[in-house]
Amino acid sequence: MTRRTIALLATLAGALAPPLAALAAPPPSTSTWTASWYASPHATWDADFPLPTGVPAVLAQQTVRETARLSIGGKRVRIVLSNRYGTQPVPIGAARLARVTRAAPAAAIALTFGGQTAAFIAPGAPLVSDPVELPVAPLDKLEVSVYLPQATPLTTFHWGAQQTGSIEAGDTTAARPRQPQALHGRALLAGILVESDTRRDVIVALGDSITDGNGSTPDQDRRWPDVLAATMAQQGIAVVNAGISGARLLGDRMGVNAAARFGPDVLDQPGVTTVVVLLGINDIGWPGSAFAPQEPPMTAPRMIAAYRQLIAQARLHKVRIVGATLPPFEGALQGTPFAGYYTPAKDGVRRAVNRWISESGAFDAVADIDAALRDPQHRTRLLARYDSGDHLHPGDAGYEAIAATVAATLGKTDGR
Predict the structure, then answer these.
(1) Would residue 289 count as lying in a domain?
(2) Beta carbons of 212 and 245 less than 8 angstroms apart
(3) In the beta sheet, which residues pair with residue 287?
(4) Maximum distance among all alpha carbons in the chain?
(5) What's the CA gap between 388 and 393, in Å, rounded?
(6) Total number of domains in the chain
(7) Rounded distance between C-alpha atoms, residue 331 and residue 195, angstroms
(8) Can you state the angle between helices 344-359 and 300-316, rounded to 10 degrees?
């Protein structure tokens, strides 16, 4: 190759190359996407478990319609669907989003995924919609409808929604159904993100059925994270609920163990700054009951080691972690097939765990839920006005007391 040829090639290369400015990274956006609502996905279970899933095993040519109340608002919205525990793709034929008003849902807006109205949720993965131009306010309610055109095993769901959805024949994403089938769990919807011009803090509530809201009034947003969200919305702070009924620190079945789900359910929430951990009563109550008849009794040291792992994960990501003491549960589920959930020995484990949570200094702060809910005349029982009736789950008043206790704890440790 001659010098003239080399010079000619160099000239051509310079002419064809894009200017350096074109290769530079675009200016950073001032907008921020933040988690505003969440429901932890978990796997369905086999028929040998003593609780039914309450959802169909397969959905085919049906629309799933779900309602969710936001914690904070924004100028645009994204929807997150989940196939976290699926082993095959979930085909989405159509999906729409509508604002829920007192009269009826407003006109539904078509959702797209990479510009397409149809999509697949990959096995083990989420599916995030394109942004929707829909300004929303704090505590707005949105309705998400998703059409499944093919036979699809329902392997990922959320059991305790405390919010009634529906399953409808055919593609009704753009219409109102006539005879829907009630859905008392969640089938596809896992998260809602909002976009705003300023950074927003997010509090994640990690827990079990007490965080999931069992015993609260359905369809009224009376779970303790709902009540906390209404309080924190005044400060522009989001609250999302990562509670799973039956969840445990150390065991799997109704959701995987806490350390396994801490990443996707807590650390992966856009904007997370704080996690409140109210979790562990099922670790104590399940062994020897119909839930886990062959499991050996739980011990406080095992639970403490599990808490320390959650604390370690949070600290690695600079997330503040608040430990919540476990409320009393004497008489829990008495007269049901789950009798034996409570024993005096199990309560001894609870009290030992609570002492460690309160006195060890391991958490960044402590919300003393035990003190807030117990009967001062019978400290191993819930105060009657806070009890839903099963002596395990609070009712609406009890959840308000939990939210007030958490809010007070956050206020003491927050520099704002």
Answers:
(1) yes
(2) yes
(3) 292
(4) 99
(5) 6
(6) 2
(7) 46
(8) 30
Of 182, 197, 212, the one marking the end of a domain is: 197
Q: Is 113 helix (H, G, I), strand (E, B) or coil?
A: strand
What is the distance between the alpha carbons of residues 329 and 196, in angstroms, rounded to a whole number?
Answer: 42
φ and ψ at residue 415, rounded to 5 degrees: -80, -5
Q: What are the 10-residue block averages of pLDDT along the chain, 416 residues in total? A: 47 43 52 96 92 92 97 98 96 96 80 97 98 97 97 94 94 86 94 94 98 97 98 96 98 96 98 98 97 96 98 98 98 94 98 98 98 98 98 98 98 63
Half-sphere exposure of 307 (CA within 13 A, CB side): 31
pTM summary value: 0.91
CATH of the domain at 323: 3.40.50.1110
DSSP class of residue 103 equals S
Cβ 249 vs Cβ 258: under 8 Å: yes
Specify whether the CB–CB gap between 224 and 407 falls below 8 A: no
Is the Cβ–Cβ distance between 332 and 285 less than 8 Å? yes
Q: Is 85 exposed, middle or buried (0-12, 13-18, 19+ CB in 10 A)?
A: middle
Q: In terms of residue numbers, what domain contains 139? A: 29-197
Amino acid making up residue 15 = A
